[in-house]
TrEMBL record:
GO terms for biological process: anthocyanin-containing compound biosynthetic process. It comes from the Eukaryota. Belongs to the NAD(P)-dependent epimerase/dehydratase family. Dihydroflavonol-4-reductase subfamily. The keyword NADP applies. This is NAD-dependent epimerase/dehydratase domain-containing protein. The keyword Kinase does not apply. Keywords: NADP, Oxidoreductase. InterPro entries: Epimerase_deHydtase (IPR001509), NAD(P)-bd_dom_sf (IPR036291), NAD(P)_dehydrat-like (IPR050425). Residues 9-251 form the NAD-dependent epimerase/dehydratase domain. It comes from Vitis vinifera (Grape). One of its GO terms (molecular function) is dihydroflavanol 4-reductase activity.
Amino acid sequence: MEGGEKGTVCVTGASGFIGSWLVMKLLQRGYYVHATVRDPGNVEKVKHLLELPKASTHLSLWRADLKEEGSFDDAIQGCIGVFHVASPMDISTQDAQNEVIDPTVNGVLDIMRACTKAKTVKRFIYTSTTGTITVGPEPLPLEYDESFWTDVDYCKAQKMTAWMYFIAKTTAEKAAWEFAKEKGLDVVTIQPPVVVGPFVTPSLPPSAKLVLAVLTGEEAGCNLLARGRAVHVDDLCDAHIYLFEHPEAKGRYICSSHCFNIIELARSLSLKYSEYNIPTKFEGVDESLKSIPCSSRKLLDLGYKFKYNSEEYDIGDLCSGAIESCKEKGLMPSPGAFLLFPWKFHDYILCLIGFFRFRSQLLFICYDFEVSGIRLGAKRLEADTTRPNRIGLGQYFEPWPHEKQRSQQF
């Protein structure tokens, strides 16, 4: 239901991909929103929030930082609900404990203490992740539900991609449940997988980077997409609000609508964006390869319904929203275009050599994204879309000898 005034809520991490979409949905529903950001004075990072419908009357920005104890207190005063979305995402850091794990754990506890001090907060909604559920040694289950917990010791030993994020979110959620039990705070946590869809942020969200990987051949992204689970950002934010408003909501809730592999995603996107000659065969990836499902049965049994469900929408439908947002914001390369960027001089020379050396190949500018920013590199994308592509180092190209060491930097 949209319209009527519903009270004041706080959203942490409001300038991010999920946070800004959630703010937009809450404003549509008639809530007043206290949106916390690290720097309200940075116009470029908050402009998209201030331009949302009803922002002029129903939105206020508050400075807060997960690393600063007590900084959320003022923003939470007078709120009936708190949606804690903010989370450190620097998975490339060399100091995982201080940069990711400690801020995540200490931050959630600091915000929960602010909730108890405010004495007005009816429910605390914490945006967790299926990464708190699915990471552990074999044997693996046929299906995951909310009873599963990620094995922190396994993450420390294996140090897989984003291991510190899995540890941080798992430890933080367990700490949140202990705090809730001790202080009597009404807490609900929600566990989404990869969140895809359009975005209102001015910069590219990490999840949109994953979607673009299929078009551009970005190595790390394609590896992560070999098989996966996803949910549309609109469904996730609606689920946040549903769980806040539903009186019987209790405990953990997985919010996942799709299981897929990269072949399914590539086939769907190749039909929608034929100008990119998206490959649909990947060496080492079987067409029957599937992720182990994360069951949303508990959420559905509560009465929630996915708008972007797997019966009516395939994974490409979910991801196309991100691509369209990239087009609108000028974040997409032109198909087949060779664009000049401020590289070092030797990069231009290497590209020219590559052009003459590989005339039969399509020279394509692709994005080499990192969570902390964007770097650009020249990579070759085979025009023959029937040729199997490898999942691994340089899955869309064989690195030149001088590139082998350099490519590992991306």
